[in-house]
Design goal:
The complex is a heterodimer of chains A (75) and B (256). Chain A is mainly alpha-helical and 75 residues long. Chain A is 89% helix and 0% strand. The mean pLDDT of chain A is 89. The chains are: A mainly alpha (75), B mainly alpha (256).
């Protein structure tokens, strides 16, 4: 296997495996936030802001995987 | 990589002035600053007591942000102290993100050694830029914590012998967590914007003119969201830094 195809496979593996955890996490996060909004619609503003912060922090993990993948692939 | 795609992880070098390399990310950062200065000049040129349409809109927006910050930080004085920094971060990151979607950016360029190099590139799709922003907000967070609590009390959040072995290790974790913010701040912004650029480039190769349009629309939203997240997280971390250390609260509750 030459270096180029190894890099492509590594890129695919890193990104593919790296987004599994954040994907599950985002699902739980948003579902809980929607549940909370459903129980208490008046607080939807605060819940949404907190949810977006949580989404950003969780999504950062997926982005880490993506950046590592880019570094493997393009350098 | 196949021929049509032009993807480069680092910002490309256009030339150098006095030995300092000039990259296309740097040029775009200066373009962002110029756009902001011109906008500030035209919007803030003649502030009147009875606001016109433009002034009204911006006063409403800034008031909304100020009120939100007051709610988060808990006092008007604190909100007014951190307002310039937070809003500057937001405006700069937002403008830099959205500048990418204007025509001629990324498509006008020069050919160096047979390789096409665009003159402008989204400034935040350069890790140096996002790391610089992350360092600015990291230093602000730590300094405001020290100023608000005093160096000994703020330090006791990190090096802590009073609450036993467990408290000591929690302090160590806090140090690692604070340092990890540098990585997460810079990588989050860089990764999102750079991934957006790559996504649009790949879509452009698949199905030109049609497929990139909805993706670019989504990326403008991501640009707004990431700018807001960067400013918001800086705000939240400042709030965490200026709060009293946890251990003392627990002690006080225990004493009751």
């Amino acid at each position: 296997m030459d270096l180029d195809s190894a890099k492509t496979i590594a890129f695919a593996l890193v990104v593919g495996l790296g987004v599994i955890g954040p994907g599950i996490g985002l699902g739980i996060l948003v579902s809980k936030a929607l549940e909370a909004i459903g129980r208490n619609p008046e607080a939807s503003g605060t819940i949404q802001t907190t949810m977006f912060i949580g989404i950003a922090v969780t999504e950062a993990l997926a982005i880490f995987a993506l950046v590592v993948g880019f570094i493997i692939k393009f350098t | 990589m196949s021929g049509g795609l032009h993807i480069s992880l680092a910002a490309e070098r256009l030339g150098s002035v006095f030995g300092i390399p000039i990259t296309n990310g740097l040029v775009a950062a200066w373009a962002t600053i110029i756009v902001l200065i011109v906008a500030a000049f035209f919007i803030g040129r003649r502030p009147t007591l009875i606001p016109g349409k433009m002034q009204n809109v911006f006063e409403m927006l800034f008031e909304f942000v100020l009120n939100y910050m007051e709610e988060t930080l808990g006092s008007r004085a604190l909100a007014e102290r951190f307002f310039p920094l937070i809003v500057t971060i937001f405006l700069f990151v937002f403008t830099a993100n959205e500048l990418e979607f204007f025509p001629l950016i990324g498509s006008v360029g020069v050919t160096q050694n047979g390789v096409f190099v665009p003159i402008l590139r989204a400034a935040t799709a350069d890790l140096n830029m996002t790391l610089a922003l992350a360092i600015i907000s990291f230093v602000t967070i730590e300094v405001s914590g020290i100023v608000a609590l005093g160096i000994l009390k703020y330090g006791s959040k990190f090096v802590n012998f009073k609450t036993g072995v467990m408290g000591f290790f929690v302090g160590l974790l806090e140090i690692i967590g604070n340092l990890a913010r540098l990585v997460s701040f810079s990588f989050r912004l860089f990764g999102n914007i750079f991934a957006g650029e790559v996504l649009v480039a790949v879509a452009m190769a698949f199905l030109p003119y049609l497929l990139p349009v909805p993706l670019m629309l989504f990326e403008t939203f991501v640009g707004l969201l990431q700018a807001a997240i960067f400013a918001l997280l800086t705000l939240v971390f400042i709030k965490l830094a200026i709060m009293e250390p946890h251990g003392e609260e627990a002690h006080r509750e225990g004493a009751h």
